[in-house]
Specification:
Helix content: under 10%
Order of helices and strands: EEHEEEEEEEEEEEEHEEEEEEEEEHEE
Shape: globular
Number of helices: 3
Strand content: 35-45%
Structural class: mainly beta
């Protein structure tokens, strides 16, 4: 099966096919160690989940007078974990050594777009700070809505001294991108279980110097005359990696481009897309859930990846199927929202503790626990940082660093120790039945397990 479909404007669009994804399985080299429960939670009063680093135009971790900065979606830890997306706010943490972190507080001063803010990326460009984020929900709506658009906060400043880091406004907020209905599906066009137009991520191509903004979206996949019911249902799963370009390099001026890759009939959500340039190749990573795979295709919650010889593609699935890293079978929801960044000869994978103390095949069962148990089983803090080796079109996990360990490239890592990695003869079967939830959870139900259909 061809993994490349006709492009727009002469640009090819790669695709993740059912044939490729049909080979997904757990195997030694893609399964993380059992990690939970968290040994240390530096911010016990907060739920902390999707996290990204402040980077410069070259993609390196930015140095702000000796400090590195991380931005996270956060909520009060008193809330049920399943409701956290409905009140998410972006918070800044900072560290001098990538091990001990301090809280700089919420980033924005009340003027952010949307009813709440979801994941994005952060650019530090010659002292200027650009915080790209997802504006979720209509600002003027009386009830919680799920409209999504790509936004930016800029004009604020970051200051640092020996005592710490502070971010200050005023911030100016702008909508940068909205779906066009041709390359990217609008909410009104959506037939799927969820709708996505979110997770902006800045990337400057080291080969060309061209600036890009990647994001998660869906390609239009309407019902077609002659399709049977099964085909029509599969086409509701139409996730893609979208991209915009800044021809002038201006971090505030973007033009939509055709998707880099789609997963029509394979997967509905290709979350938090980002690229690591290494060894002259482009490694495109996305996160996805078991419940967002199309009927007839099964994959676990995990980090998935693709590789190309040029930013525009064509992209090939890493390891033949796309699966790069997943949780162990007995703790299949222990971590999520992996973010990859280069470190010397390796790539490091940062994520958060999800439901670490849960051995069921579906998160539906979490809703049956008491509120106390739900909080106890949810980590809500950063998970151990995984170490990944790249070898052309193949990847292999090498081990793990401590939770909240985010080193810069000039910081040496301990010798590789693969003793903690599972080496079982996995049967290959992905047993999880998943759950329809996640970002588009129903706030009014108080649970992330009853998602309203669009």
């Amino acid at each position: 099966m061809n993994n490349e479909r006709a492009g727009d404007g002469g640009q090819p669009r790669s695709r993740w096919t059912r044939e490729q994804a049909g080979g997904i399985e757990r195997r030694p080299g893609n399964v993380a160690p059992v990690a939970g429960p968290p040994e240390v939670d530096p911010f016990p009063d907060l739920h902390v989940w999707d996290t990204w680093l402040l980077r410069d135009r070259n993609g390196a971790i930015a140095d702000v007078d000796g400090w590195r900065l991380a931005f996270s979606l956060t909520a009060d830890a008193d809330l049920l974990p399943g409701t956290r997306h409905d009140v998410a706010e972006i918070r800044c943490f900072y560290s001098a050594d990538g091990e001990r972190w301090r809280d700089a507080g919420p980033v924005f001063d009340g003027g952010a777009l949307g009813q709440r803010q979801w994941a994005g990326s952060a650019l530090y460009d010659d002292g200027d700070l650009y915080l790209y984020y997802t504006a979720a929900g209509r600002d003027d709506a009386a009830e919680l809505t799920y409209t999504q658009r790509i936004a930016v906060g800029h004009g604020g400043s970051v200051t640092a001294d020996d005592d710490g880091v502070a971010l200050e406004g005023p911030w100016r907020h702008e909508t940068l991108l909205e779906p066009d209905g041709e390359w990217y599906e609008t909410e009104a066009q959506s037939r799927g279980m969820t709708y996505t137009f979110r997770d902006p991520w800045f990337f400057e191509d080291p080969a060309t110097g061209e600036a890009h903004l990647l994001f998660e979206a869906n390609v239009p996949a309407p019902e077609r005359e002659g399709d049977d019911a099964e085909t029509s249902e599969r086409r509701e799963f139409n996730g893609c990696v979208g991209v915009a370009a800044a021809p002038s390099g201006d971090p505030l001026s973007w033009e939509l481009r055709p998707p880099l890759l789609d997963a029509v009939e394979v997967n509905q959500e290709l979350e938090r897309p980002h690229v690591v340039a290494a060894d002259g190749r482009y490694y495109l990573f996305v996160c996805s859930h078991v419940h967002t795979f199309a009927p007839g295709v099964t994959g676990p919650d995990g980090l998935y990846g693709f590789v190309a010889d040029a930013f525009e593609g064509p992209y090939r699935p890493l390891n033949g199927t796309g699966l790069v890293a997943t949780n162990p079978p007995d703790a299949q929801f222990q971590a999520y929202s992996w973010m990859a960044f280069a470190h010397d000869e390796e790539v490091l994978l940062q994520s958060f503790f999800n439901y670490h103390d849960f051995a069921g095949d579906s998160l539906d069962a979490v809703a049956e626990f008491s509120e106390t148990e739900q909080r106890a089983r949810f980590g809500g803090t950063l998970a151990p940082t995984l170490r990944l080796a790249l070898d052309g079109d193949e990847t292999r996990l090498l081990g793990a660093l401590d939770a909240w360990r985010i080193p810069t490239p000039d910081e040496a890592l301990p010798p590789v120790d693969e003793s903690g990695l599972p080496d079982d003869d996995f049967d290959g079967k992905i047993r999880e039945s998943g759950v329809r939830g996640g970002y588009d959870a129903d706030a009014r139900s108080g649970s992330e397990y009853d998602e309203p259909l669009p």
